[in-house]
Amino acid sequence: MKVLLQRVSGASVSVAGEVVGRIGKGLVVFVGVAGGDTEKDARYLAQKSASLRIFPDEAGRFNLSALDIKGELLVVSQFTLLADTRKGRRPSFVAAAPPAQAEGLFEQFVAQIRASGLKVATGRFQQSMQVEIHNDGPVTILLDSKEKF
User: What is the Cα–Cα distance from 25 to 15, expressed in whole angstroms?
Assistant: First the structure.
């Protein structure tokens, strides 16, 4: 499972012109589920996303997490994080989990984040979405559950 975090001052996601999720200061979290991923991967990355210290303290150092600042999270499914571009010019997505498996693990990821007490908004699974991001920093970090140590 891969997660791309973007620290934002605000963000929203729309489907067919309708805003379905909006947040203030916090993180946009793009989630890609690979075949073979498990609930353990979802739990690990949800905890890591909420507790990663990528917000500045009063001295401007990365010492605070989304939990510390009571940040908001916009979580969006994005299978394209699993793109394999090593061969040719068209990305392959064979590493991405089938939709039914991916949706279940995506929902488990969202449930884990919500259990932390943070405000969470989401996009709509398997829908074409427009995501508006006001990247803060910019700070963008890729997490991979297969690269824990």
Answer: 22
Please tell me whether the overall predicted TM-score, pTM, comes out greater than 0.85 for this model. Answer: yes
In a domain, 89, yes or no: yes
CATH number (domain holding residue 118): 3.50.80.10
Q: Which residues are known to be catalytic?
A: 78-80
57-105 pLDDT, tens per residue? 999 999 999 999 999 999 999 999 999 999 999 999 999 999 999 999 9
The C-alpha atoms of residue 31 and residue 84 are separated, in whole angstroms, by: 16
Secondary structure of 9-62 as H, E, C letters:
EEEEEEECCEEEEEECCEEEEEEECECCCCHHHHHHHHHHHHHCCCEECCCCCE
Say yes or no to pLDDT of 149 above 70: no
Q: Distance (Å, rounded) from C-alpha 132 to C-alpha 17?
A: 12
CA atoms within 13 A on the CB side of 131: 21
